[in-house]
Structures are given as C-alpha cells and as structure tokens.
C-alpha cells in the first residue's frame, strides 16, 4: 500500500515541447529511418528526428501493435475488422494492407523472425484457458505454426533465430503498479532446438518487452520503481539499468531498430541512441481529422437505455440514455430531449404523479444534485443540492402528492426531500454493503408514510415503516423471515410485501454455500388498521339491494386520499398470505385498486440451471386480483431487475395504475395493466438519437472515474494515494486523446496507482462494426504438402448444447488424419490460413469436402454447423486429458476434479466430477486457471469431511456417513492464472488443513467488485468495494498471492516431451500420501447381544 503514495509523490509532469498535449504513442516500432506507432486507432509514421506524422494505415478497424520487419520492407500490425483482431501486413512505404489470420480469437502482433519472412504473433487460439501461445505466419500467408513453447505473450529472436527471449504469460492487469503477486512476468530465454530455458535474473519484478540486440537482451522492468529500461548479458549472467527513471511515468512499451530503441514513456515518444546512451524526446505533429473525436448524432441502441419511467397515465416514457433524459411518446408525437447536455451525466428520471415535473440526478457542476423541470422541456431547470459529503444518488421516488422525493445514496442512506424545504432528511441506513440491498422505498397514498426494506444483523431483511410526522422507523416484520419489496395499496388500507422463511444459507451472498438452494417466498398483505376486515375473508354469494355510492364518498375522492392510519399494536397478527403458490419471487408491484403483480424468477437448482443463471434468467409476471383471488399469467419474460445501488426497475406501473412499462431483452414496452398483453404489443419506438461530443464526454467520464474511486473503494485512505493530486497529474492527457480506447488506457494507467487488484476498465462507445463470425470445427490442423489435414478432433458432449463438436455429430464421422479439401465447393489449400474458408460460417450449415487422400481420391461431402468458439471444447479436452493421465498414473485410484471458477462453472463442475468419484481413494483438485467469483466455503467444507458413522444392513455394502464424501488424501494444483475466488480457494484449503498445494503462486487479487454506475457512453470502471483479510493472518493475499507448498513450473522442455510437470508432481505427492494414509476400513464392532427377555414357559 505504501508504493502508490511513494510513486505519486515522485511523479512530475512531462515536459512537452511546443505546448503539444501528451499523447499515447502506442507500441512504437523503429526502422532505419522512420518510427511507426499507433494513435487514434490508426498507424502513423514519423522520421526519427520527429516532425509531421503521416498516416500509413487507416484501415476499416482499430489498428494496434505495429512492427517493422528487420529488413525494413514490411510493417505488420493488428487490426480489428469485422469485429475480430487479426494480423495484417503492409509495405513499409505504403500500400494496401493484406490480412494474414482469420481465427475468431484475437491475434496480436509480437514481432518478426530475423529473416523477415514470418510475422510473430500471440494468440489464445489453441489453448483451453488464458495462457497465450506464440505463432509465426509467413508474410505471404498460409498456416500459422506454433512455437515449441507451452505459452508466451511477447518475444524477440536472437539474430540467428536459434533462441527466443520471451514472456511466458500475460497479466490480467498490466497497469497495476508495483504488482508482486503470482502473475509478475519473468523473461525466459528458450533454446528453440529443445525448449530448454534460461531465466533472466529477478526478484519477483515485472519484466517484459524483451528486445534482443547483439549479444544482450534489453527489456522493461519495475524492479527499481517506475518502469524503465534494463539489459541482460547472457554471457555474464548480469542485469544492468540502461535508463534512469527516478519518479517518472512508466515506460509502457519499447522496440529495437538499427542502432536505437524507440519507446513510449506514457504521454511521450522517445528515442535512445545505443551508441551514445543518450535519450531524447521525438517531437510529433499530428494535424488530421480524427474520426472518433467528431461531434455527431449517435443512435441509441436498446441496451443503452439504463433507466425508464412512465408518465402518470402512460402517454409518454422517460428514458435515460447516453447521459440524456428523453421523453418518448407512447404513440403520437416526437421524442423530446429534456436535458440536451453533452458531457453531463443525467441519470434516474422519474415523473411526478401530478404530471407537472420530471426529476433526475445530474453531475452538472461537478457533483450530483437533484434537478427538476417541466415535462415539456421549455421551462427553467431547478437544481436542489443534496448536501455533503458528495455521493452517488439513486432511485428518486415521488410521493403521491408530488411534493416530496425519497431516494438513496451510495453510502446506504435513505433520504426524504421536501421540495419546499429543500433540506434532505435522513430516514435510515442499511447495515451491510451487500448486492441486492437497496432499501426500496414506497410511499403511502397520503404521502405521510414511507415503507422500505432494511437488513438486520442476522443478514435477513425486514420491512420498516417511517412516519414523516414523528420521524420514527418501525419494524413490522419479525426478522425471522427474509421480507422485502413493500408496496402500499391505493386506498392505504393494506401493505403488500414478499417474505420467505427458508433463506438460511442463501443469505450469504459471497459464499458458494449459498448456491443451488431452493429459496422461495410468499406474497403477504398486512391489514394496517385494527377496524378493517380481512381482504381475504370467506365469501358467500347472497342477494341484496344494490349499494349506491353516497355523495360524501364522491366528495372525499375529489378531496384527495384519506389519511392513512397504521395501528402497529398487533400488526403481526394482521399479516395474511395471499392465495398464491410459493415461488422465487424477486419483486412485487401494486397496480389499480385490488391488483398486485408478482415477479417470479426461475429457481436454479440443477448444475446446468446454475450455469444458465449466471447469464441472468428473465422473470415471469403474474397478476393477482383480489376480486377473483387468483393469480393469472401476465408476462412470460421480463428482464431481471437490478437491485444494487438503487436498482434498475424493469416492470413499472403508471401512477394511475392503468398501464405498466416493462423491459424484455433490453427493449421497452408500454401495455395496459388489466389483462395479459399480446407478444410485441406496446413496443416503444427505437429510432432514438442524441447529440454527442466525444471530448466533452471523455472529460466527464474522467471526473466520474475519480468519483467512483473516491466513493466506492473499500479503503477510505485509497491505499495512500492522494486522489486530488493523481487527478491533476493525469488531466492534461485528456487533450491528446484520439480515440475512446485511449481513454480506457488512460483510466487503466491512472487507477493502476491504487496498487490493487480488480481495478478493471472496459467497453465504451468504441467504433461499431458488423461482425462476420468465423466458424470453427473443433479441430487442430497440420499441413501435408499443400493440404490441410485434421491432426486432432476435439471430442465434446453432443448431448450438451454448450459442448457440441461439429465433426463428431452423427452422420459426419470425420476422422483424424483425413484431409480438408474444400468448403462449400471452394478449394482449400495451405496457401491460405484455413479459417479464411470459414468467414461468416459460424452457426450456418456448411458443406465440407473431406477424404483420406490429399489428391481427393475417395473424397466425400458432409454438412456441419461450425461453432463460433472452441473454448468450451478445448477446456473439456484438456480436462479429459488430465483425468486420463491421473487414471493411468494411479491405476484408477485417484480422482481428478477441475474447478474453473468459484461461481456457476465451478459449482457445476465440482458437483458433477467430485461426487461422481467419491469411490476413489484420493483426489487431485485442479484449480489452475480458476477465475474466481465467490468464496469457496462449500468446496472446502466437502473436502474436509471425515468419517463419523457406518450404516450397516443385512444386504449390500456398508455406507460410511457422511456418504457423499472422499476421505483419502487430497492435493490441490494452483498457478498464476488462479485469482480472486481462485486465490481464496487454496487459502481456505490450506487453512482447513486439507492437503498440500502444488504449482505456482496465485494471482493475488482478493478483493470484491460490483454495482458501479455505468459510464456515460456505456463503459465501465471498477473500484474494489469489498476487501478481505484473514482472521489472525491479516492482509496476506492481496498483491501477494497464495504460494504453493511444492513449487513446480511448467518447464517448456518437459512439456515439449509430452509431459505435464505440475500434474505429474501432484500425482507423485498424492501417491506418497496414500502410502502413509491407506484407505480406511471400518470393521464392525460386536453387535450387542442382550439377555433373553422372552417370558419363560
């Protein structure tokens, strides 16, 4: 935590020649006379001396990773075209780029072979998880050839091509300053003849960007503080610093060329003369139109509508999109922009019940405040400041009299604001910062009471009612049920809510123990006054005179709602269950008088259900009517509401109860509330546009990122970082931005100073592209002559929709060793990359010509449906290879269980593969590449079970209790790509004393993220809001990782021989443990024989 404070104290702004703003000259590369770099999504060149930059490549897509060939004739680069990142080459003097790779995974240029005949690139195309491999592909095109190394993400050849200096793995957060967890990057030097390696000396530093120059390997490292340039002498075995960088910005990337190294020191382009050892800034002038900076009209896609709210009678709908509040007509009229504020975040609109006002939160002025305006958009905007400290505010809820608003903030407070007094009053505060907890206020019809949900110390929720007159909250549910979603009915006589008594372990939202539990709830109604009858009293049809409404009753309706009285004494005995089945209800809303809507989500019980649940089940809606006392289906599929931080409602009745607004598959519909609508009925128009000014948006998002870090980070001291100074330090970089992706790069660099895992930056309004998905067959290829041959066909589970292998479908029967001769009648040869033939084929019927001979003899045609990703197939193949190896090495005595994460996938895999092997004598738990999710208490609880009892019977085998348990020795495999929940699992495994850990140190990112405001253009940034320390051990994982008991690297030489060093060592260890702890047996003790108790004759 001290590193960040130290770094920011030393940083000083770069000296910028001629007032030029600092720019991100990404991945510079050097030829004999020119420098090329990526900027604004294009490739530019400039003379070594500097000057006016010229565009060399302005392709259809975003360009990056330029690399001059050693002979200076070519420039290779990566470009995102058709939604996919591939390798291209272009003549260095200019010309038409040529695409070399077509695989649907990203292919990123890393360099060249010394003879300039092949491009070196790294890709995930042939790996089961997130360890890339290095490939070469001829500059003329053809089949990419994998280097004989199990992994690699950067590389540089020795001049004779015999050795490669490379980085064996990538990082999830390359900008994490002074990172010292398991993903610190070494540089290895591989002898390509046998894949043996020499390690560049280091002490857990981040070394990267190797450049082989003469007899030395130059590289970037943070071993002495800020990232700078070092050199390794293989003959002497020593490392020396080449450039001083005391307290400067990190050097982000570098590349060697004739006599020099060009490098990007964040915000500046520099050149190091190797002969003199002198470095200088290269002045760069860029005067060109940058497409991504142009102000323009932008279309609003359905998924960009973050909040919506109907007018009182449903004639219009307010939507929040791209930071604007739009009023959209249900049928007639035009779309009205009520804010017209490019570069301002206007959020969470709500229409007053009297129809006179629209309220929303806006950051215009630097911090969020409440704004109000007439719905025609013509009157002035009224601003109401919401006090200090500043915060994010959520979910404005109007009182029925349109005079007050209830809302919540990030600090878990519930507030009421009287618009005449303009002084917010705090109602209550929640107890735990847990997902799904948002207080959820609801007004009584007379605007004098506020019902809401709040957590209790037992982690369950209770319903509270707050009186605005006495300002006292009263808990009305007993706290032994999980109660939520309170709503008053329209006459103020009843309060409806949901509650369940079976939540139990399901309340532990961070624990895997909460998964797979059938948590259901019921719908209830509380009768608020003692003198009111039950709304569910027995009914009997009887004749009688028609009742006529009295004149005074009509007068009361005109005068407004009757004052609501709540008799709290005995209220618990006036709570009744509605006659509806228990279900997994997630929300309740009230409509017209006597109508209640219930939103039900699917209960995820089976493993495959839980995998689906990760993607978000839609919810169904039921309409309960007190007149019929029945619930009828209303809507089959509504988007699941988001409940964190004020929530995103997806089903909203109008103020008069006549209509409901709902979202389905991110599209919005406004329909009548009296009966189930027809499919597609009431769809809102989708031709929405707003004016955007990207530089103004980028400045707003820059401020927003710092607000998010300020308000959400779990450490109020920000790991020692002075946020104000950090913000001021990086603000000048805004002027030099040329693209939205560069803004993301700026966010990553500046948040990296928090020295903290899970500070992720993603998305945003990147240039749109129509995708042409490349189809995959689930196969590896090799070249024989000029033809492609199937080297390996991946076996899936064709009964499982997520694991279907195209070539193994019934009737296809393509075999390994056969040739791929044509695709849809077009000849396929090794002169092209094989995936070029499958451009646009994913998910479509495709005719293959295959056969046993390269010349086509005996060929046949088969129809397949290629998939768009082989990831699941390759992962299953890897798992099965490992399981078979363990079976072979142990004679079938040891179970192998892979745990891919600690959420849906890990829950499913563990349940399927562990419990099906409890008949084994021991187990190897493989959590390498575990991407986390939750805290894996469920898994460790199962692993640490010990025998307690034996169940005997006359027939059959004895059953040891607990029955579904494996009591023998256990070993866990870990590696640097295990993180977050994948850090916690081995930590818990060791703490519980289950067994030893084998492999390499884990990532070291044990904090939690979730529930942040979306950035203005749909991008996202995280600020870890949950930090975890060990009881009795402290902060012993974050930025450290979990170290193995037995360290084993994936030695490239052994892997080349077909070995699996980590798994083999785990097998050896577990067999040694079995020798010392053989399987237990439980001989029967004598069954008690009692004296004869029969009566004597």
From TrEMBL:
It is found in: Cytoplasm. Its EC number is 3.4.21.-. GO terms for biological process: proteolysis. Residues 857-1049 form the Tail specific protease domain. It comes from the Bacteria. The active site is at residues 758, 980, 1038. This is Tricorn protease homolog. It comes from Mesoterricola sediminis.
């Amino acid at each position: 935590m001290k590193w960040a404070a130290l770094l920011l104290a030393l940083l000083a702004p770069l000296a910028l020649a001629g007032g030029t703003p600092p720019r991100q000259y990404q991945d510079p590369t050097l030829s004999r006379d020119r420098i090329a770099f990526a900027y604004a999504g294009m490739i530019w060149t400039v003379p070594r001396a500097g000057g006016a930059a010229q565009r060399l490549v302005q392709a259809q897509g975003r360009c990056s990773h330029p690399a001059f060939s050693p002979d200076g004739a070519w420039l290779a680069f990566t470009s995102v075209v058709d939604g996919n990142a591939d390798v291209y080459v272009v003549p260095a003097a200019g010309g038409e780029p040529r695409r070399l790779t077509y695989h649907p995974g990203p292919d990123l240029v890393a360099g060249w072979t010394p003879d300039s005949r092949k491009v070196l690139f790294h890709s995930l195309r042939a790996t089961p998880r997130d360890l890339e491999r290095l490939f070469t592909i001829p500059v003329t095109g053809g089949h990419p050839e994998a280097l004989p190394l199990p992994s690699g993400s950067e590389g540089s050849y020795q001049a004779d091509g015999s050795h490669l200096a490379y980085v064996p793995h990538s990082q999830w957060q390359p900008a994490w300053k002074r990172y010292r967890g398991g993903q610190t990057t070494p540089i290895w030097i591989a002898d390509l003849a046998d894949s043996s390696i020499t390690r560049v000396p280091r002490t857990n530093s981040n070394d990267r960007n190797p450049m082989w120059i003469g007899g030395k390997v130059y590289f970037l490292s943070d071993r002495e503080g800020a990232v700078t340039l070092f050199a390794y002498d293989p003959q002497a075995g020593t490392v020396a610093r080449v450039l001083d960088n005391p307290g400067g910005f990190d050097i982000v990337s570098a590349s060697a060329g004739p006599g020099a190294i060009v490098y990007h020191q964040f915000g500046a382009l520099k050149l190091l003369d190797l002969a003199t050892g002198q470095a200088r800034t290269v002045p760069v002038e860029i005067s060109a139109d940058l497409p991504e900076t142009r102000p323009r009209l932008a279309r609003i896609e359905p998924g960009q509508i973050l909040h919506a709210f109907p007018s009182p009678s449903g004639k219009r709908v307010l939507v929040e999109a791209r930071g604007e509040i739009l009023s959209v007509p249900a049928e007639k009229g035009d779309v009205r922009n009520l804010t017209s504020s490019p570069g301002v975040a206007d959020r969470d609109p709500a229409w007053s019940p009297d129809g006179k006002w629209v309220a929303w939160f806006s950051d215009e002025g630097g911090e969020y405040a409440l704004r109000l305006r007439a719905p025609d958009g013509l009157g002035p905007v009224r601003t109401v400041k919401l006090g200090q400290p500043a915060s994010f505010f959520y979910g404005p809820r109007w009182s029925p009299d349109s005079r007050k608003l209830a809302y919540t903030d990030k600090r878990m407070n519930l507030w009421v604001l009287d618009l005449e007094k303009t002084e917010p009053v705090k109602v209550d505060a929640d107890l735990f910062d847990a997902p799904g907890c948002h207080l959820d206020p609801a007004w009584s019809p007379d605007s004098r009471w506020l019902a809401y949900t709040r957590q209790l110390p037992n982690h369950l929720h209770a319903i509270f009612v707050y009186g605005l007159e006495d300002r006292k909250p009263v808990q009305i549910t007993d706290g032994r049920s999980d109660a939520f979603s309170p709503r008053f009915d329209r006459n103020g006589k009843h309060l409806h809510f949901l509650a369940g008594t079976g939540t139990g372990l399901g309340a532990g939202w961070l624990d895997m123990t909460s998964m797979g539990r059938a948590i259901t709830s019921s719908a209830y109604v509380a009768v608020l006054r003692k003198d009111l009858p039950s709304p569910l009293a027995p009914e009997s049809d009887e004749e009688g005179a028609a009742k006529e409404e009295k004149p005074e009753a009509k007068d009361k309706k005109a005068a407004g709602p009757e004052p609501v009285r709540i008799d709290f004494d005995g209220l618990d005995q006036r709570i009744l269950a509605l006659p509806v089945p228990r279900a997994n209800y997630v929300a309740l809303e009230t409509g017209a008088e006597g109508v209640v809507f219930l939103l039900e989500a699917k209960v995820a019980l089976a493993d495959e259900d839980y995998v689906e649940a990760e993607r978000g089940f839609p919810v169904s809606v039921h309409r309960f009517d007190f007149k019929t006392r029945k619930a009828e289906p209303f809507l089959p599929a509504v988007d699941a509401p988001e409940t964190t931080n004020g929530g995103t409602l997806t089903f909203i009745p109008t103020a008069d109860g006549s209509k409901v607004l709902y979202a389905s598959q991110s599209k919005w519909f406004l329909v009548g509330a009296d009966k189930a609508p027809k499919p597609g009925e009431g769809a809102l128009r989708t031709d929405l546009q707003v004016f955007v000014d990207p530089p103004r948006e980028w400045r707003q998002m820059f401020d927003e990122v710092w607000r998010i870090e300020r308000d959400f980070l779990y450490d109020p001291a920000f790991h020692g970082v002075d946020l104000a100074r950090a913000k001021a330090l990086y603000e000048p970089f805004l002027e030099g931005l040329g693209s939205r992706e560069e803004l993301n790069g700026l966010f990553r660099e500046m948040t990296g100073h928090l020295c903290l895992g899970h500070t992720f930056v993603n998305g945003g309004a990147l240039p749109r592209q129509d995708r042409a998905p490349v189809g995959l067959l689930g196969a590896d290829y090799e070249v024989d002559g000029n033809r492609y041959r199937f080297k390996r066909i991946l076996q899936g589970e064709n009964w499982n929709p997520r694991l279907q292998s195209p070539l193994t479908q019934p009737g296809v029967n393509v075999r390994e060793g056969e040739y791929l001769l044509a695709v849809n009648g077009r000849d396929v040869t090794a002169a092209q990359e094989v995936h070029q033939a499958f451009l646009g084929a994913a998910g479509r019927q495709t005719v293959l010509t295959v056969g046993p001979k390269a010349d086509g003899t005996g060929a046949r045609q088969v129809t397949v449906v290629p998939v768009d990703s082989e990831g699941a197939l390759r992962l299953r193949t890897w798992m099965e290879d490992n399981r078979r190896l363990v079976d072979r090495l142990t004679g079938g005595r040891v179970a192998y269980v892979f745990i891919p994460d600690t959420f849906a996938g890990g829950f499913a895999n563990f349940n399927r593969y562990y419990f099906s092997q409890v008949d084994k004598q021991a187990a190897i738990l493989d959590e390498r590449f575990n991407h986390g999710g939750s805290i894996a208490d469920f898994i460790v609880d199962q692993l640490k079970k010990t025998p307690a009892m034996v169940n005997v019977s006359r027939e059959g085998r004895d059953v040891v209790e607990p029955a579904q348990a494996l009591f023998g020795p256990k070993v866990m495999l870990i590696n640097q790509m295990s993180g977050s929940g994948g850090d916690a699992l081995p930590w818990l495994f060791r703490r519980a004393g289950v067994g030893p850990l084998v492999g390499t140190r884990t990532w070291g990112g044990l904090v939690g993220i979730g529930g942040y405001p979306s950035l203005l253009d749909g991008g996202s940034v995280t600020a870890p809001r949950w930090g975890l320390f060990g009881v009795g051990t402290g902060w012993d994982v974050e930025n450290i990782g979990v170290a193995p008991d037995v360290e084993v690297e994936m030695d490239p030489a052994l892997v080349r021989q077909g070995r699996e060093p980590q798994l083999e060592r785990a097998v050896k260890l577990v067999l040694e443990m079995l020798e010392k702890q053989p399987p237990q047996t439980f001989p029967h003790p004598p069954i008690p024989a009692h004296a004869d108790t029969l009566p004597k004759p």
